[in-house]
Write a structure and sequence with these properties.
- The longest helix is centred in the middle third of the chain and has 29 residues.
- The protein is an alpha+beta fold and 446 residues long.
- The two termini are 19 Å apart.
- It contains 10 helices and 13 strands.
- The chain folds into 2 domains: 120 residues, no CATH class; 253 residues, no CATH class.
């Protein structure tokens, strides 16, 4: 309350509120100190100067642009919306992609992780919640745990994803799978192209002259702490989405190629002589414009997970520091064991390339959450550039910025990082100004 009153009573509150509006309600805006000057290249005459010396606290606040909803819901929502537009454009056109792409064969594929031990799950059938692991002849593990659970878990039961016996659970395998999964995905895409070419009597090189296989995918954490991938996979002609695939390039063959590639590809962690493959629960469905699985539903589903990380497992949304006391961290015991496995395995020199210690907070996964092939659709960079150009044009039209011919103007800028974040009181005011939701806890400036 004191922080709110202090900010409200500042003479430059209106300008501060204007900055907050321009950040879109960012919870942890970047603080910049500096200036920018515009000069006429022909005469050297100063046309315009902006300096942060007249701004509140002498700084300019700009959005953090994080994708993680746990850190900044406002910026994550922009990232989610951009991802939605990117995925949807590859399904129905727009953003530089022709509408004819909607006629190209397209599948929605989910690749899962293998089992690393029995965990508490929630299952439903015909709207009825089933027992977790009901076993009449349940065995007792070497650690004295009966490998059975007859509870009907609620959707928010904290036990979901927890092992029935933590001592039997393969924590090493879980974090190693996360670490190797980007390579497993890469090998899957290669095997997919080889198999599709083989099904149509072609070599991979010959296939490129007729068909391009494009994709967009996102990684999702399961409650047990392992990632699985959701992907849109589409058949195009040799020139990408602007050209239709040949008539013989069918969704049925693409489905067969997906099934084969998911079953055969492996990735090995050689120092430990451990081989990993995809789980047996493979889901492949056809995307249609007016059927059960529409382009809008797929784009929304993928975009939702683009802003999430491992928070559903109960871990941290920051790196584990060398001085952190792992036993004292406010995390679930299951997540603690996964992190401990990362820290222990990361000390093995033979596993240095997996960077398990640096990515312990992500339970070993170090890949990009959302990726796409080059020709799938537009890019996030193009979407951001278009938004920035729109905002710049609006500022010029309303007189907030002067109009300059960019070809004849020299721009000299000097910026320094001056901190990040808002105080608790400022966060409350920012939420009121922009209509965003309040943070659940903490998150002050630094």
């Amino acid at each position: 309350v004191a922080g709110m009153i202090h900010r409200l009573n500042q003479p430059d509150y209106d300008r501060w509120a204007s900055q907050i509006k321009h950040t879109g309600g960012c919870r942890q805006p970047i603080h910049l100190r500096g200036k920018v000057e515009h000069y006429d290249q022909a005469t050297g005459h100063l046309l315009h100067r902006y300096s942060t010396t007249t701004e509140p606290n002498g700084i300019l606040r700009v959005p953090c642009k994080t994708r993680r909803a746990t850190r900044c819901p406002a910026c994550a929502e922009i990232y989610r919306a951009d991802t939605y537009q990117l995925v949807r454009a590859g399904l129905v056109g727009g953003k530089g992609v022709p509408e004819t792409v909607s006629s190209h064969p397209c599948l929605f594929v989910t690749l899962t992780a293998p089992s690393f031990g029995a965990v508490h799950i929630r299952r439903e059938k015909n709207g009825k919640v089933l027992p977790c692991h009901a076993r009449r002849d349940a065995q007792t593990c070497p650690h004295g745990h009966v490998m059975s659970c007859t509870d009907r878990h609620s959707a928010d039961d904290p036990r979901l994803g927890e092992p029935l016996c933590p001592d039997c659970y393969d924590y090493d395998g879980s974090v190693l799978f996360n670490a190797i999964s980007p390579e497993l995905w890469r090998r899957f895409t290669l095997a997919l192209r080889r198999r599709f070419a083989s099904l149509n009597g072609l070599t991979v090189n010959a296939l490129r002259e007729h068909v391009t296989i494009a994709f967009a995918k996102v990684a999702e954490y399961q409650r047990r702490g392992v990632v699985h991938f959701h992907a849109v996979i589409r058949l195009d002609g040799p020139d990408g989405p602007t050209s239709p695939p040949p008539s013989w390039a069918m969704a049925d063959d693409l489905n067969l190629a997906v099934q084969h590639a998911a079953a055969v590809v492996t990735a090995e962690v050689k120092p430990l002589i451990r081989t990993f493959r995809w789980g047996t629960q493979l889901d492949v469905r056809r995307i249609t414009m007016n059927g059960e699985l529409t382009e809008q539903a797929v784009a929304a589903y993928i975009a939702k997970y683009a802003t999430k990380a491992a928070e559903c497992v109960g871990t941290l949304d920051r790196r584990i520091q060398p001085l952190d006391n792992l036993d004292a961290l406010p995390i679930r015991e299951h997540a603690r064991r996964l992190i401990a496995a990362c820290m222990r395995l990361g000390e093995d020199p033979g596993l240095a390339d997996l960077r398990l210690i640096q990515w312990a907070h992500m339970l070993g996964f170090r890949g990009h959450f959302s990726t796409k092939s080059r020709r799938y659709s537009t890019t996030l960079g193009a979407l951001r550039a278009a938004r920035e150009e729109h905002m710049r044009t609006e500022d010029i039209t309303t007189g907030r910025l002067p109009f300059f011919d960019e070809d004849t103007v020299l721009v000299i800028a000097h910026w320094q990082y001056a901190g990040q974040g808002l105080s608790i009181g400022e966060q409350v005011l920012a939420a009121a100004i922009t209509g965003t939701r309040l943070p659940s806890a903490g998150g002050g400036g630094r």
